Amino acid sequence: MLLSEIADYLSSVKELTAWEVTQLKRCAYQLYTVFQDVENIREVTSEEFQVKVYLTYERDGQSFLGESSFVLTGDDLLGPKIKSALEMARLIANQPFSLPVPGPVYPTIETFDTKVAVDPAYYLEHIRKYLITFSSPGIRLSSSEIFIAEITYNLLNSNGLSASRRETEIMLDFVFLAKNKDKEGEIECLKRCRLYDDLNMAPTLNQYAAYARDMLTAEPAPTGLYDVIFAEEALDTFLNYFIAQAGGQAAYQGWSQFKENEPILSNTKGERLTLISDPFLPGSMKSKSFDENGLPPEKVLVVENNIFRNRTANKRYADYLGIKPTGDFANVVVSPGDYSLKDLMSPAPVLHLLKFSTFEPNPVTGAFSGEIRVGYLIDGDKRVPIKGGSISGTMSKAMQEIYFSQETTKRAAYSGPLAIKVCNVNVAGR
Amino acid sequence: MGAIVATSFLLLAIACPLSIMVIMIKTLKFLLADLVFDMEKKVPYASALAMETEGEKVTVETHEQKAESLPPQRGVVFTVFTGRHFMEAATNDLRPEMLKKTAQDLVKKAEDLIRYDGPVIDPGEITDQEFYVQRQIKNEDIPLAQKIDLCRSCKDRVERADKRITSALCQYLFVRTRELFVNRHKKLYQDMKRTQAVAFVVMCDGERASELHTGHAYQGGYEHAALPEEKLDKLITDCARILYAERLNPGHYDCIFSPAFAGMFAHEAFGHGMETDMFLKHRAKGAEYINKQVASPLVNMFDSPALPGQAASFFFDHEGQPASETQIIENGILKSGLTDLNSALCLNIRRTANGRRESFSNKIYARMTNTYFGPGKNSLEEMLKDISFGYLLEHPSNGMEDPKGWGIQLEGYYAEEICNGQLTGKVYSPVIVTGSVPELLGSITMVGDKIEISGLGMCGKGHKEWVKVTDGGPYLRLKARLG
Prior knowledge:
The complex is a heterodimer. Helices cover 19% and strands 41% of the residues of chain A. Chain A folds into two domains: 213 residues, PmbA/TldD fold; 205 residues, no CATH class. In chain A, a hairpin with a 2-residue loop joins β1 and β2. Chain B is 22% helix and 39% strand. In chain B, a hairpin with a 4-residue loop joins β17 and β18. At the A-B interface, β1, β2, β3, α2 and β5 of A face β3, β5, α3, β9 and β17 of B.
């Protein structure tokens, strides 16, 4: 089946007001190890066409949008799929929105690693050798999973818009075991990136080996109110409540608490949050030259010094809300603060938390909790490893006093302060 | 480590070209058998698994509606064992010539790596069987308009119940999964149907907001599409209570876990930690505790893909192992792990039907199915009777465990105060249970007499590899550290 054949067929269906079709090709190479040995070597190839169909109609003097979607793979027959999608779309009554028209200029963004795409087998083996030859006192590799994929998107719509992009995706998951006389412990690392160089193999392995060793002497977190510094993996989802609240869907569905040009947090002490959605960061996981509707995404100043400035919205929610489409929230960019990481470590004691089992604030209520997997209790010169116990609260209350480090870091979809300090967080532990 | 997420606004099925796929699967059976035969001329062991998942989903919420076919997951994965390790090739191009080429290319890559001095894989008894989940009402026979009306009336009913509701959602989901496993001795085909219904509500009152969901999922057809009225009433009542709930004071308390909370506890406590691929990687402490006491003698725990009607049940796993029950804990003693082929082979332990993959494009791991505590003898009233102060925990949201360190965290939306043997109606939210697995299991002093299984769960392994699971149990009385 060819993309153009599907497009021609969709164009011939008179009842359709609009359609979109995206061809998604994926070639994935996977290598799994247990200790030094290969457990499994896999190769997966797939191709699918994601089709969305739209029809507008009038009822009681009001316009409605009927819509549905389906996916074609292999030798699927297009006719029965469209028939079934039309049946569904006729029964749906959503608010209409329009698809983009041809003309947008797509930015060039670095999301494709040519070397990796040309010889994925070499890189799989290269990364495996790196892992199995890595040596650090008291540390042993338990297992690893290495994935390399090349993904191609080709999008067409009924307005004649056409867009294409290629991406590479690298995932490395490994587990280190640490052992001393009395105890055994483990640490898991999961890294995703688009460019091989962003794996930073040597620093990453050394860093996780150190965590694994530290966890052998770790204690559960103390109980009480503590100033908490979020860093490393803990930063990846830390701002997800703000991202969800700032989205067009939240406003349209009535659960966004954010109002334009008003503070997002009241009575704030410390520093003020500046949050940007940036789809252009080279190699970042949420960088892309066009969104699901084929629009070039925009860099958006979402929160400026604690004031909510602009909503992110794809074409649907932008039309519904009468605002400019920007694409969904892309990579998280946070402005650094005035304090060094060292400054943030005082007054003591402070909890420096790097990794939770999960940390996913509720998008509606902002309630959060996280079980601590790697952290340190900093008390002057003392640095005690912490594992176990949890932090909890709601984002709006917990973030009444926050600080951002001067030093910055870049992660899979985050660029900003190396550390974010939140004062007076509820900690439940020993 | 894995996570169980109770909220699974999943997929669903619609009028799909069913006849086309049935013919294709039947055709593939003989083709795949031929290809496995050819592959085994050059490798010690080969198998093939064809999978197709499709379905329909109808979602009606306050501001939007959707009716859509589930993205089909359809493909074939060929597996060969070289004598040292496995190699796999997967494709969603099911044309016979492409399947043949995929199998041949895989064997070519494996040929130079073959060692005949490694472990030998038992292909099992010679069998050629087909299995079907039965339905009272075929989902395909119900007009789409009726399904949308069902969701709309459910959503309207919820919305009307309370003025503070800003968003309500009702969803119907039908998933049909067909799987064909072929090796040298086995030709196994299963056709499974699952129907799920979910309601979700958001309440706002000034600066406060709360959300909650309810639902069920069972094997079977449209007879499971509607949610019982009492579930919807409880959803609204409990969400309103959560809206004004305070946070409880952290500490150790007498607790009662609801069956749903007990289910999440079972899943996290000795579910992930008994998946034997974790034994192989030295990542599970449970490996050292087989036949040792790990829980109160009142505790029995099971994993069974053979439970009739439950959403995570099947007839054979993705490596052709027939479904059967595994008793993980017997009277407080840790008894058996959950195995996939590779870990059973390497550890030389009994195979259980737990070799599962997310889709044809994912690898096999040892995974849970329906995981639950067995019943005891106590009623809820007996459990409440002599608690002077404590909490009843309901509405679990998610949990995590640490098989290596036996730490555990369970989170939920709802803790209702118990005072002098009575529920007071005062609710705290959210609630987090943290502690060590044996300490929590050892503190169980009463086990309820009736099991309930919650069917909405999905389970990941290391933040990926999502498969359908359920969990459950009876009410449990225990001591726990709450935050």
